[in-house]
From TrEMBL:
Protein name according to UniProt: Uncharacterized protein
Domain of life, per lineage: Eukaryota
Lineage: Eukaryota, Sar, Alveolata, Dinophyceae, Suessiales
């Protein structure tokens, strides 16, 4: 941090699990531990904040309002917890508004009141509120204050009506700048968030920009994908956009949401830290960050990374082929289906189910929508989704229960005409860019990390192209071409696994305590996840899931689910009754007599053994 001139860090505190027999979350022992960490940061000139949502329940988050109730009871809880946090020595307090990223929770007026109470308790210290990019959440009783807008306020912007000292934190996600197409979380782009940021600055409100420069769950760094070049480009472009906003006050600064430094992401995180202080062109930023290298390879590498960023934006973000040919969205699928990013990203069972459910219900999934493998060979939605589709009424009922053979043929035609050329060009482009690393004589750990990461991206593009070709063109066929697609995808997966194992030896993991589980599947304590931080990337879980689904013609969207909705969605991971209800539902949906496809989405009992667990296969 200090090498990048960063001066503020924010931690996210976890709550006790419901099964815990001790009260550690607000204990004296925890306070003393936190004081030690805060003092260490202060000794180095770094301010420390802590993210504690008001009522957010997901992912074991510690919150200020654990038991919402009467107004007086709410106020008592919030004041007590803010005082405890202040006693730990934190400089500022970050918070969030909804019960999840997608739900509002408390009534808007009560939320404003509690925000004011929080700021009152903190006195001169700052409250920083995340303005999420999720959509279709409204603050009843509050009107959008922008002259160019009318109607009910976006719930994510609610803190505008609280104490004006409260800091707003516009939050972008994934590999999209404020100006890019951004088919995620129900958006087409982040233009509304950009407009809101400009409005806040014009009104003289304090603003900290809060971009995301790696997305751990599914999307990129866990695959892993080498998206550091385009993330760096995003941050440079965002710096230009923010500086161009005419406001009565300047931006207070930036806070980067980062999910790791492995697989080249140190480059993107460092670029974000750099442009937070001074505007740079992308090439200048790379040259400055690579100043430890000799001049000739340094210039060559910076130029290569600039080209990487341009091609990633063109193919992955915009879906543009050479000659400016724009890929259209797939029939019946959202705009994300027109971008290569939607296909090389990672996805597990629960996220696939959420993606399809969001599509059928007209909502926005937290990842770009795509044509799933099964949709190129299956004539109707999976049984676990038919009811959701039928709820829409009208023609959706007919589609849900009478089949969509016509739509399947349309998607196969679209694949041949549009998606296959896009994926083929993506594969060829990143293969050539990865090979160019071999022409740069630059030994060293940092350079090698970038070179291997670029190679991994190339391999992922190759696997995805082969698997989609097989899915669209080889249903019921055993031709030489079809066999070659499977052979290629298997060999690519094998090569990628060798790279993943080789890189694990260069990540400094040997310095960790033996009990630290970073690469392994483990119990979800204290986090909401049953696997270590680098488990998915190290095992290439998302690659193996895709391979298994295609080779075994698996149509169960919940196949290979690794996230537990009870752990993720309920406070403290749910209590005994929640676990009992989950177990009953799992038994009712999947037993010796029948199996309903939705069952696997209720949470994995053990680590998925892809390629061996035939009981997971649903034809």
């Amino acid at each position: 941090m200090m090498a990048q001139k960063q001066n503020y860090i924010e931690w996210m505190l976890l709550a006790d699990r419901h099964s815990s027999k001790t009260n550690f979350e607000l204990s004296d022992e925890r306070r003393e531990r936190l004081r030690i960490l805060v003092a260490a940061a202060h000794a180095r000139g770094i301010e420390v904040g802590v993210d504690v949502p008001l009522s957010l329940k997901q992912q074991h988050a510690l919150n200020l309002l654990p038991s919402p109730g009467r107004q007086s009871h709410n106020e008592e809880q919030v004041r007590a917890r803010v005082r405890w946090l202040r006693s730990c020595g934190f400089d500022h307090l970050g918070t969030e508004l909804g019960t999840t990223e997608f739900t509002r929770g408390l009534h808007a007026a009560e939320m404003v009141r509690l925000l004011n109470i929080t700021q009152e308790e903190l006195g001169p210290q700052k409250v920083l509120v995340k303005n999420h990019c999720s959509t279709n959440q409204y603050a009843d009783g509050f009107t959008d204050p922008r002259p160019s807008h009318s109607g009910v306020l976006n719930f994510n912007y609610l803190n505008y009506f609280a104490d004006p000292k409260i800091v707003s934190m516009p939050h972008t996600v994934q590999a999209y700048s404020l100006s890019d197409p951004a088919p995620t979380y129900g958006n087409a782009d982040f233009s509304d968030l950009r407009n809101w940021t400009s409005f806040l600055l014009q009104q003289g409100r304090p603003v900290v920009f809060y971009p995301e420069t790696a997305y751990w769950v599914n999307y990129d760094i866990s695959v892993p994908l080498f998206l550091a070049p385009t993330y760096a480009s995003d941050r440079v472009e965002d710096a230009d956009s923010l500086d161009a906003m005419s406001g009565t006050v300047p931006l207070l600064g930036q806070l980067n949401f980062e999910s790791g430094w492995q697989w080249g992401y140190w480059l993107a995180n460092s670029a974000q830290a750099l442009v937070a202080w001074r505007r740079e062109s992308l090439q200048s930023a790379f040259l400055r960050l690579l100043r430890f290298m000799p001049q000739k390879p340094r210039v060559a590498l910076a130029q290569l990374l600039v080209e990487f960023a341009a091609e990633q934006r063109r193919l992955l973000v915009k879906g543009l082929r050479r000659g400016g040919v724009q890929t259209p969205p797939a029939p019946g699928v959202g705009p994300g289906s027109a971008t290569a990013m939607a296909y090389i990203q990672g996805s597990e069972g629960l996220s696939d189910f959420a993606s399809l459910a969001a599509r059928y219900l007209g909502e926005g999934a937290p990842q770009p929508d795509r044509v799933h493998f099964m949709e190129l060979w299956r004539e109707v939605p999976s049984s676990s989704l038919r009811l959701l589709q039928a709820i829409q009424g009208g023609s959706a009922v007919t589609d849900a229960f009478l089949g969509t053979d016509r739509l399947r043929w349309q998607r196969q035609s679209w694949f041949q005409e549009h998606l296959r050329p896009l994926l083929a060009e993506t594969n060829a482009t990143f293969a050539e860019l990865a090979r160019r690393f071999e022409r740069i004589p630059a030994p060293g750990k940092a350079f090698q990390d970038l070179a291997v990461s670029a190679r991994m991206l190339s391999l992922r593009c190759s696997q995805v192209l082969a698997l989609y070709e097989y899915s669209a063109m080889c249903r019921g066929k055993e031709t030489e071409f079809c066999q070659s697609r499977l052979t290629l995808s298997r060999s690519v997966l094998s090569a990628a696994q060798a790279l993943a194992e080789e890189r694990a030896e260069h990540m400094g993991l040997e310095a960790l305590d033996r009990g630290t589980r970073v690469l392994e599947w483990s119990e979800p304590i204290p986090t909401a996840y049953s696997y270590g931080y680098l488990w998915a990337a190290h095992t290439l879980f998302y690659w193996r899931r895709d391979q298994e689904m295609v080779e075994q013609q698996i149509a169960d969207v919940c196949f290979g689910a690794i996230n537990d909705p009870v752990e993720l969605g309920l406070a403290g991971g749910g209590g005994p009754w929640a676990r009992w209800a989950q177990s009953v539902m799992q038994s009712a949906l999947s037993n010796r007599l029948w199996h309903v496809e939705l069952a696997k989405c209720l949470g994995p009992p053990t680590e998925p053994k892809l390629g061996a667990a035939k009981d997971m296969v649903m034809l």
